[in-house]
Write a structure and sequence with these properties.
Oligomer: single chain
Largest sheet: 9 strands, mixed
Number of strands: 18
Strand order of the largest sheet: 11-10-9-8-14-6-15-18-17
Helix content: 25-40%
Order of helices and strands: HEEHEHEHEHHEEHEHHEEEEEHEHEEEE
Shape: elongated
Length: about 375
């Protein structure tokens, strides 16, 4: 039976898990709370891939008091040896008598094996507490494990009439400073930022996370050195990047996607060779390649043609649109190009997830 108490402590574990959302990739975000005699005696969260899991931190804090206690974990404890030992074994060894788990881990290396190991050791197990919230913690990790594809978010900054730039290409800045700062926390949580050669060269883009522009609550937890820079993935199907662009001067990794094995010899720069369809990179295959490289989530910032291509192929999980209170008129550039859309019945359909005012702009999040 799931009690109000179970939900209360699992909610705390979920809040802890959220603290790792900027640093754990490619691992999932996981939180753990240990209670005994109706009080918390240990808690922790996974902080970084290769470092101890949430259960280990919580058990260390609880010490010998863990004997006879209950552990609340947002994701099924692992049962295999990876970079760290199995957490299921650590819980069993600690003397925990009951483990409450929000959801089963779809990772084939775990997938019910951790639950079975706990049950076989005589530990009582309850699964399914606040499962919807637990799912939302790890949208990218879960999609990659279940489908072999990453979770894709497309960001657009547009006027009220759906324009992203003047006919001349001028686009700095349609949205407010606050909206651009809001983007930073999305970038920081993504495994990679995906864009195109034209956007990199036209906008002279860096595609980095700017620590100074993150929310104050985030900066209190993570200093500048701890914020992870997402991998920059740039599609350059015509081999036009020359290595002198700003993006190659930034910290962190850059992956260039080309149809031919023509690398760019710059530090921290790798080449991904992908097949093409009608002279364009096969986007489905590219996303599968990124997933195989342990990319959980993709944050897309690009022009209207690339945005339209992703939408037309049904590759977008989430649209994040920033609407500025401006009108740019019919000569301005549309936010996405869908050339083969000839009937209203064929129009891509999204549902509203949330709306929020960001200073003078409106942020709208939509999902398929």
């Amino acid at each position: 039976m799931i009690s109000d108490k179970d939900q209360f402590y699992m909610q705390r574990a979920i809040e802890l898990a959220k603290l790792g959302r900027f640093t754990t990739t490619p691992n999932p975000n996981v939180g753990c709370v240990i209670i005994k005699d109706n009080r918390i005696i240990g808690e922790g969260y996974h902080q970084k891939a290769g470092e101890p899991h949430a259960e280990v931190y919580a058990l260390k804090m609880a010490g010998n008091n863990a004997i006879g206690g209950t552990a609340y974990v947002t994701l099924e404890p692992c049962s295999h040896f990876g970079k760290t030992p199995p957490c299921a074994d650590a819980l069993i060894k600690s003397g925990i008598k009951r483990v409450v788990i929000a959801m089963q881990d779809p990772n084939p290396n775990v997938a019910g094996k951790g639950i079975k190991r706990l049950n076989d050791a005589g530990v009582k197990v309850c699964v399914g507490v606040l499962v919807d919230q637990a799912e939302s913690l790890n949208k990218g990790f879960l999609k990659r494990m279940r489908t072999g594809l990453p979770y894709v978010q497309l960001k657009l900054a547009t006027s009220l009439d759906g324009k992203i730039a003047m006919a001349s290409g001028e686009s700095k800045w349609i949205t407010s400073t606050s909206a651009r700062q809001d983007v930073q926390q999305f970038r920081a949580q993504a495994s990679c930022i995906l864009s195109t050669r034209s956007t990199v060269q036209i906008d002279n883009a860096n595609f980095t996370v700017r620590h100074a522009e993150l929310p104050e609550a985030v900066k209190k937890i993570y200093n500048c050195d701890k914020i992870r820079q997402p991998i920059r993935v740039i599609i350059d199907s015509q081999n036009r990047l020359n290595g002198e662009e700003n993006i190659f001067k930034q910290s962190g990794e850059t992956w260039v996607v080309r149809k031919q094995n023509i690398p760019i010899h710059k530090p921290n720069t790798s080449l991904i060779v992908e097949p093409s369809i009608k002279d364009n990179i096969d986007l489905v295959n590219l996303l599968k390649t990124l997933a195989k490289k342990q990319i959980n989530s993709v944050w897309v910032e690009a022009g209207s043609h690339f945005a339209g291509a992703l939408i037309a192929q049904d590759l977008i999980d989430e649209l994040i649109i920033y609407y500025a209170p401006k009108l740019l008129g019919h000569n301005a550039l549309d936010m996405c190009v869908l050339p083969n859309l000839h009937a209203l019945s064929l129009a891509p359909h999204f549902r509203f997830e949330s709306t929020k005012m960001i200073d003078e702009d409106l942020r709208v999040i939509l999902k398929r």
